[in-house]
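can u pls check wat happens w/ S-adenosylmethionine
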Amino acid sequence: MFEALTPVSEMLTRNLDILSRQPLLVCGLLEDNLPGLLAEAGPAPRVFTTDFRYFQWQQAQGLTDIEFGTSPGPSAAAGLLLLMPKAKAEAEYLLAACLPLLAAGAPVFIAGDNKGGVKSAPKLLAPYCGQVNKLDSARRASLYQAELTTLPAPFALADWISRYPLEEEQLQICALPGVFSAAHLDSGSRLLLKTISSLKGRVLDFGCGAGVIGASLLKRHPELTLECIDINALALEASRATLAENQLDAKVYASDGLKQVSGKFNHIITNPPFHAGLRTFYHTTETLLSSAADYLVPGGSLILVANAFLPYPELIEKSFGHCETLAATGKFRIYRARR
Ligand SMILES: C[S@@+](CC[C@H](N)C(=O)[O-])C[C@H]1O[C@@H](n2cnc3c(N)ncnc32)[C@H](O)[C@@H]1O
């Protein structure tokens, strides 16, 4: 899945001499074995990722110096390479989380796709670095370099939590940069919450994001036993904050699809990952639809919201033998299948 080098990494291979002068802390949009390439060219990098799937894949490759979480551990780093993430706010977050580990004068690199916001590198680095140079540009990707001149304040996760009220449910939703629905409730999730009625027993909030669905269900049915899973460390932390802020309690943990989940549930509820063009997201949802029945007690149900054009009813029918449509709007459908 992460085997092929991205165009950004291909461009970086032309700059390995400068990148491998010091062991780098690498973070951001890691989608290939760039760390392996850096390790071949010089000192092995230290990798920090918020993506549980990438973490597991690198661990399977034998890369030992990899951390998964909301921020890297406290040990010092000689330099930083940030691979530009999709959201600019996430880039700001990662710089704030990683730069306190560097000493003054340490090199800071930002690389990314030209269409993915890398051009904002000088602006992103302005609070920390004097001069920002563009080192290379090829394969529609660019590499910027700077030197850390202003030592950043110690990183505090709490400073990055944003909040918005969910008035219908009287909940306060907490989010972190780059987390789905970070500023307002998604309209698909809203329809899902409106449609779901009676629930009981053990419930899985699959792909919990900021914890909107799980927290709403628990608020309505405090007797539920809730588990929330996501692949993204910032989503998991946001869900924990949402639950805590609303005095709700659930088990929140990292899982790639259902891989780290055990036992059977009365209900699996989800607004599943969907992003046009990202093949892995379809793969996650297809795998969920084909294996969810194995994680449900007899009579248990899978309830999801999906864009109306997605071919999920066929996949659900194939696996459950039937698929009910509980609600339909121009854009969304709510599907239910019982085991
Ligand atoms: C459409 S969002 C829904 C978020 C939240 N439930 C809501 O309704 O606002 C889908 C979520 O699935 C997560 N996700 C993506 N791939 C995943 C995977 N392989 N396993 C678990 N969660 C995943 C994403 O990080 C994202 O938070």
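The mean pLDDT is 95.
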